[in-house]
Every structure is written in C-alpha cells, then in structure tokens.
Amino acid sequence: MNLNGPWFYEWLDGPEPATAFLDRCADRESPQMSTSRVRMPASWLDAFGSVAGTVLLRRRFGRPSNLDAHERVHITLDRVVGDAEIVVNGEEVAAVAASDETQSFDVTDRLQASNELSIRLTFDGRRAADNGQSLASVAIEIHVAD
User: Is the whole model's pTM more than 0.85, yes or no?
Assistant: First the structure.
C-alpha cells in the first residue's frame, strides 16, 4: 500500500519561521495549525524550493488487517533525498543516509490499530535540488518472515 498523497510537514530548521506557517494555515483552530501539507512523492524543489533545511513529515495509517502469524509489516522507502530518521508511534525505527536504494524496516511490533509515521528529513544542499531527486516514496508492505 503506497502512502502517496498528502503528508503534513513542519520546518524544524529551515528558511521559514514558525509564524509564517501560522499565517499560511487555513484553519487556525486545527491541531495541525503549525504545519502545512505536501503531496508525496514529490521532488524537493517542487515541495520546498531550492533551500536546505530539516522538515518533519507525518502521515497516519491503519494497521493492515488479517495478518498471518508468519507475516511482517514493513515500511519501505524507495528513495531518500537527505538524511532521515524514521519514527512509528513515537519510537525510532531507523536512521538512514541519503540513498537512491530501496530501504525496508520491520515495524510489526510497533503497530497499533491507528499509527503515525514520521520522517525527519534533512536536506543539506549537497545534492542538487533541481536534479529530480524526490522525497521518499513510502509504502507499507507485507513480508513473509524467514
């Protein structure tokens, strides 16, 4: 299951101060009022322009149903444009470096009925933002345990 579509993001370290986010939010009463949305996957340039910084990307998802005892749930990232920390329900799953390689992490034991996946992504500008590098394409996959 691809986690394409809208993700919430918030600059943790970057070009836009928190007050600018508050000014841009449509629903100031929302619990997400200090965040914005980006559609994933996307190129860094399309999402954030040609700036470096750190963003926190967040997305909710449900636990896959009808899992057999020998099946494991993995979060898979197709491409990571910068250094990233992957967190599920507040627990760090992995820290990864920028890579074009697919990376997969078993999160089965961390899952609840409703879950939050967070990716703290740091783009330092060493890789050109306009060369088509995309933010991670993220999916939930079911793997058979060894």
Answer: no
